[in-house]
Amino acid sequence: MYFSACEDHGLKKTEMKMVIKEVLEESAHGESIVEAAIRCFDRFGVAKTTVDDIAAEAGIARATVYRTVSNRDHLYSVVSYKILGDIAAEIKPIVDRQADFSTALIRGSIESVRRFRASKVGMLLLEATGDLGVERFLIDPQSPVVNHMLLVFRETFKRAREGGALRRDLSDREAAAWIRSFIFILVLSSNLSKKEQESAIRKFLIPSLVTPP
To answer: How many helices and strands in the chain, by DSSP H and E?
Structure first.
Protein backbone atom coordinates (compact mmCIF):
# COMPACT_ATOMS: atom_id res chain seq x y z
CA MET A 1 0.00 0.00 0.00
CA TYR A 2 1.41 3.36 -1.04
CA PHE A 3 1.21 6.69 0.76
CA SER A 4 -1.52 8.88 -0.69
CA ALA A 5 -1.33 12.56 -1.44
CA CYS A 6 -1.21 15.24 1.23
CA GLU A 7 -4.85 16.24 0.90
CA ASP A 8 -6.11 12.68 1.39
CA HIS A 9 -5.10 12.70 5.03
CA GLY A 10 -6.21 16.26 5.71
CA LEU A 11 -2.74 17.59 6.57
CA LYS A 12 -2.13 20.98 5.02
CA LYS A 13 1.36 21.81 3.76
CA THR A 14 1.61 24.70 6.20
CA GLU A 15 0.85 22.32 9.07
CA MET A 16 3.29 19.75 7.73
CA LYS A 17 6.21 22.13 8.14
CA MET A 18 5.51 22.53 11.84
CA VAL A 19 5.69 18.84 12.69
CA ILE A 20 8.84 17.82 10.83
CA LYS A 21 11.24 18.24 13.73
CA GLU A 22 8.77 16.68 16.14
CA VAL A 23 8.77 13.43 14.15
CA LEU A 24 12.51 13.07 14.72
CA GLU A 25 12.79 14.55 18.21
CA GLU A 26 9.60 13.59 20.03
CA SER A 27 8.00 10.60 18.30
CA ALA A 28 8.84 7.22 19.80
CA HIS A 29 9.23 5.67 16.35
CA GLY A 30 10.15 8.69 14.22
CA GLU A 31 13.88 8.07 13.96
CA SER A 32 13.48 4.38 13.14
CA ILE A 33 10.82 5.11 10.51
CA VAL A 34 12.98 7.73 8.82
CA GLU A 35 16.05 5.48 8.83
CA ALA A 36 13.94 2.61 7.47
CA ALA A 37 12.53 4.88 4.75
CA ILE A 38 16.04 5.93 3.72
CA ARG A 39 17.11 2.29 3.38
CA CYS A 40 13.95 1.41 1.43
CA PHE A 41 14.31 4.41 -0.89
CA ASP A 42 17.89 3.36 -1.54
CA ARG A 43 16.90 -0.26 -2.18
CA PHE A 44 13.61 0.07 -4.08
CA GLY A 45 13.53 3.68 -5.25
CA VAL A 46 11.23 6.41 -3.95
CA ALA A 47 8.20 5.72 -6.13
CA LYS A 48 8.17 1.96 -5.51
CA THR A 49 8.61 2.07 -1.73
CA THR A 50 5.39 1.25 0.13
CA VAL A 51 4.18 1.76 3.68
CA ASP A 52 4.50 -1.99 4.17
CA ASP A 53 8.15 -1.87 3.07
CA ILE A 54 8.95 0.85 5.60
CA ALA A 55 7.01 -0.82 8.40
CA ALA A 56 8.73 -4.16 7.79
CA GLU A 57 12.16 -2.53 7.63
CA ALA A 58 11.50 -0.64 10.89
CA GLY A 59 9.95 -3.70 12.57
CA ILE A 60 6.69 -1.93 13.43
CA ALA A 61 3.05 -2.03 12.38
CA ARG A 62 1.88 -0.15 9.29
CA ALA A 63 -0.58 1.82 11.45
CA THR A 64 2.35 3.15 13.50
CA VAL A 65 3.93 4.53 10.35
CA TYR A 66 0.69 6.36 9.48
CA ARG A 67 0.39 7.76 13.01
CA THR A 68 3.91 9.16 12.79
CA VAL A 69 4.05 10.46 9.19
CA SER A 70 0.67 11.42 7.82
CA ASN A 71 1.30 11.15 4.09
CA ARG A 72 3.85 10.88 1.33
CA ASP A 73 4.84 14.56 1.26
CA HIS A 74 5.27 14.60 5.03
CA LEU A 75 7.54 11.54 4.89
CA TYR A 76 9.60 12.99 2.03
CA SER A 77 10.06 16.23 3.94
CA VAL A 78 11.09 14.52 7.18
CA VAL A 79 13.59 12.31 5.33
CA SER A 80 15.00 15.37 3.52
CA TYR A 81 15.31 17.21 6.84
CA LYS A 82 17.22 14.26 8.31
CA ILE A 83 19.58 14.00 5.34
CA LEU A 84 20.27 17.74 5.37
CA GLY A 85 20.84 17.71 9.12
CA ASP A 86 23.49 15.02 8.75
CA ILE A 87 25.18 17.00 5.97
CA ALA A 88 25.07 20.19 8.08
CA ALA A 89 26.84 18.42 10.94
CA GLU A 90 29.62 17.39 8.53
CA ILE A 91 29.92 20.86 6.97
CA LYS A 92 30.03 22.95 10.16
CA PRO A 93 33.65 22.12 11.13
CA ILE A 94 34.79 22.98 7.60
CA VAL A 95 33.04 26.36 7.71
CA ASP A 96 34.28 27.12 11.23
CA ARG A 97 37.91 26.61 10.14
CA GLN A 98 37.82 29.29 7.43
CA ALA A 99 39.72 32.48 8.14
CA ASP A 100 37.28 34.93 6.53
CA PHE A 101 33.59 35.21 5.73
CA SER A 102 33.86 35.00 1.94
CA THR A 103 35.99 31.87 2.06
CA ALA A 104 33.56 30.29 4.53
CA LEU A 105 30.69 30.98 2.11
CA ILE A 106 32.60 29.43 -0.78
CA ARG A 107 33.80 26.31 1.04
CA GLY A 108 30.54 25.76 2.90
CA SER A 109 28.41 26.13 -0.22
CA ILE A 110 30.57 23.95 -2.48
CA GLU A 111 30.90 21.21 0.14
CA SER A 112 27.15 21.28 0.78
CA VAL A 113 26.44 20.86 -2.93
CA ARG A 114 28.97 18.05 -3.27
CA ARG A 115 27.66 16.12 -0.29
CA PHE A 116 24.01 16.50 -1.19
CA ARG A 117 24.66 15.36 -4.75
CA ALA A 118 26.52 12.37 -3.27
CA SER A 119 23.41 11.46 -1.25
CA LYS A 120 21.61 8.92 -3.43
CA VAL A 121 18.35 9.21 -1.49
CA GLY A 122 18.50 13.00 -1.34
CA MET A 123 18.84 13.22 -5.10
CA LEU A 124 16.18 10.54 -5.64
CA LEU A 125 13.75 12.64 -3.60
CA LEU A 126 14.46 15.73 -5.67
CA GLU A 127 13.99 13.78 -8.89
CA ALA A 128 10.91 11.87 -7.74
CA THR A 129 8.71 14.74 -6.54
CA GLY A 130 7.03 15.88 -9.70
CA ASP A 131 4.69 18.11 -7.69
CA LEU A 132 7.72 20.07 -6.45
CA GLY A 133 6.81 19.26 -2.83
CA VAL A 134 10.36 18.72 -1.63
CA GLU A 135 11.68 21.63 -3.69
CA ARG A 136 9.16 23.94 -1.98
CA PHE A 137 10.20 22.50 1.38
CA LEU A 138 13.86 23.16 0.64
CA ILE A 139 13.43 26.67 -0.78
CA ASP A 140 10.54 28.06 1.30
CA PRO A 141 11.94 30.89 3.51
CA GLN A 142 10.02 29.52 6.52
CA SER A 143 11.35 25.99 6.06
CA PRO A 144 12.89 24.38 9.15
CA VAL A 145 15.86 23.48 6.95
CA VAL A 146 17.01 27.08 7.53
CA ASN A 147 17.81 25.97 11.08
CA HIS A 148 20.48 23.67 9.64
CA MET A 149 22.15 26.61 7.91
CA LEU A 150 21.96 28.64 11.11
CA LEU A 151 23.77 25.82 12.89
CA VAL A 152 26.46 25.64 10.20
CA PHE A 153 27.12 29.38 10.00
CA ARG A 154 26.33 30.59 13.54
CA GLU A 155 29.95 31.13 14.62
CA THR A 156 30.92 32.43 11.18
CA PHE A 157 28.10 34.99 11.28
CA LYS A 158 29.21 36.05 14.76
CA ARG A 159 32.81 36.61 13.64
CA ALA A 160 31.66 38.34 10.46
CA ARG A 161 29.47 40.75 12.41
CA GLU A 162 32.25 41.51 14.86
CA GLY A 163 34.58 42.24 11.95
CA GLY A 164 31.98 44.21 9.99
CA ALA A 165 31.97 41.73 7.10
CA LEU A 166 28.27 40.72 7.27
CA ARG A 167 25.70 43.29 6.20
CA ARG A 168 24.09 44.87 9.24
CA ASP A 169 20.64 45.05 7.63
CA LEU A 170 20.40 41.25 7.44
CA SER A 171 19.41 39.01 10.33
CA ASP A 172 21.22 35.70 10.79
CA ARG A 173 18.07 33.87 9.72
CA GLU A 174 17.72 35.93 6.54
CA ALA A 175 21.35 35.27 5.67
CA ALA A 176 20.98 31.54 6.40
CA ALA A 177 17.80 31.31 4.31
CA TRP A 178 19.51 32.92 1.33
CA ILE A 179 22.58 30.65 1.64
CA ARG A 180 20.26 27.61 1.79
CA SER A 181 18.35 28.74 -1.30
CA PHE A 182 21.52 29.49 -3.25
CA ILE A 183 23.02 26.10 -2.38
CA PHE A 184 19.97 24.34 -3.80
CA ILE A 185 20.08 26.43 -6.94
CA LEU A 186 23.57 25.00 -7.38
CA VAL A 187 22.43 21.48 -6.50
CA LEU A 188 19.77 21.66 -9.20
CA SER A 189 22.26 23.16 -11.70
CA SER A 190 23.96 19.84 -12.29
CA ASN A 191 25.81 21.10 -15.37
CA LEU A 192 27.98 23.49 -13.34
CA SER A 193 31.54 22.44 -12.55
CA LYS A 194 33.15 23.19 -9.19
CA LYS A 195 34.95 26.15 -10.78
CA GLU A 196 31.67 27.46 -12.19
CA GLN A 197 29.98 27.01 -8.81
CA GLU A 198 32.69 29.08 -7.16
CA SER A 199 32.32 31.75 -9.84
CA ALA A 200 28.56 31.94 -9.21
CA ILE A 201 29.14 32.20 -5.45
CA ARG A 202 31.61 35.04 -5.94
CA LYS A 203 29.32 36.89 -8.38
CA PHE A 204 25.97 36.47 -6.64
CA LEU A 205 26.08 35.03 -3.12
CA ILE A 206 29.01 36.90 -1.61
CA PRO A 207 27.97 40.38 -2.84
CA SER A 208 24.48 39.83 -1.42
CA LEU A 209 25.79 39.11 2.09
CA VAL A 210 29.12 40.88 2.50
CA THR A 211 29.30 44.52 3.58
CA PRO A 212 30.30 46.55 0.50
CA PRO A 213 33.67 48.31 0.66
So the answer is: 13, 0
DSSP letters, 41-57, are HHHH-TTT--HHHHHHH
Cβ pair 53, 44 in contact under 8 A: yes
According to DSSP, the residues that pair with 210 across neighbouring strands are 166
Q: Are 71 and 6 in contact (CB under 8 A)?
A: yes
Interior/surface letters 63-84, b for 16+ CB within 10 angstroms, e for the rest = ebbeebbbbbbbbbbbbbbbbb
On whether the CB atoms of residues 20 and 11 are closer than 8 A, the answer is no
Pairwise CA distance, residues 140 & 200, whole Å? 21
Distance, in Å, from the CA atom of 190 to the CA atom of 29, rounded to the nearest integer, reads 35
Residue 156 · residue 96 · CB < 8 Å: yes
Cα–Cα distance, 92 to 87 (Å, whole number): 9
For 88-92, 111-115, 138-142, 147-151, which range has the lowest pLDDT when averaged over its residues? Answer: 138-142
3-state secondary structure of 210: strand
CA distance 187 to 52: 31
Other CB atoms within a 10 A radius of the CB of residue 142 amount to 11
Helix 101-117 crosses helix 72-96 at what angle (to 10 degrees)? 140
Higher local confidence (pLDDT), 129 or 1:
129
